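Table S2 (continued). Query chain:
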Amino acid sequence: MTTVSDFSIKNDAFDTGVSGIREVFNYIKRYKEKTFVLKIEDSLLLNPLFPLLMKDIIHLHDIGINIVIIPGIRTTIAEKLSKAKITTRFVNGVRITPAEALPLVKLAAMEVTETIISHLAVGGANGIMGNWVRARAIGVNQGVDFECTGCIEKIRSDIVIQLLEQNFIPVLYNIGFNSTGKSYNVNSSHITSRLCRDLDVIKLFFIGKDEGIPVANLALPKGIETHPTGIFSSLDLSQVDYLLEHNREGLDQHYREYLENALEATRVQNGVNRVHIISGTREGSLLQEVFSSMGGGTMIYRNKYAHIRVATWEDVPEILHLMDGYVKKGNLVLRSEAEINEQINNYYIYEVDRAVYGCGALYRQDDDAGEIGAIAVNSSYKSKGVGQGIMEFLIDLGRKRELKRLFLLTTQTSDWFYKFGFIQGTPADLPQGRKARYNNERNSRVLLLDL
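Corresponding output:
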């Protein structure tokens, strides 16, 4: 006998299902004719769910999403080298490839790529493999000879675009060639992130056995989102910067490579909006990530501060150069190279395509207060929102650090700072330590912002 309660349960389930279907339709409309890049680790090839993963990829292709695949070859290479009793080593995550190992690396690349092409063909999709990577030898770097390991000079992304327009699924393997035809072993993750810089890619997926980036034993920034399973749910680029900077020892090279390549793909102008690190050993993980707001794994996303990063000592000459004009006009106090180096972790850089457009700093003071300083923008980009972006970032950073008040000292640009909510104060409003260092001769205005 069916009861009213039964009907209620069925209707609730139906409503939930309908909502899910509507959500899928919205995502299909959003992603149609857009490009996804998938790096798929070869450690998944023998997993019983791998054929289902490939079917899901074909489904995405069938609804009009452009798909590019880059296979990870590391597991297969290791197996072939082990059988041949050839030992190789890694330096900063990059395999040194001796000449006797290169033929086996090529063989591994072909086998993995052909396996992926075969699965695509079974599902009715036209996969096409090719080497469109122009490479050169890494050579000797810091005393280490990388032998037959190469780095990317150029990817023939024009060919990849033409193939996508013809409804192919291009599969790029990890062998690159120089102008004379000499071949090199090239890191697949580097190919992945570089290709994303060349194409208009909306999503990048790293698909392997990992559910995401694990949280355990890492120094964490404030406001971080974690999953009950112990992985990061989502990270913005500033949080990725923090993890890389503050976990030089605790973060496994495997996960560091994911994060570094995610940054490489997203940070450039018109870069990837979303990077997803998901497991290929969980059924439907790819579809869940694409068609649901409740995806699994770790998502790395661009925010409005995507071009802003923590400065390093290598940026000091650029910072001094940016500040020089402001110092000459009396807008900024002269700081020495040694002073900036000592405070480098407080400086932030606005960078696009490896060019520094601006800088700024947030110095923590006593009484839960922070001082904003060293705001400088390249004269060619003063009308491009660079300074505004840096200021908004530093204010947001102050909130994340749970500061109660921000302040700054200025002589000629008060009006510009007022639009961010600053109000005029007096030297008496400064924290005690900063008050003692106030320069009465300079007579700077004190501006305050309560957070």
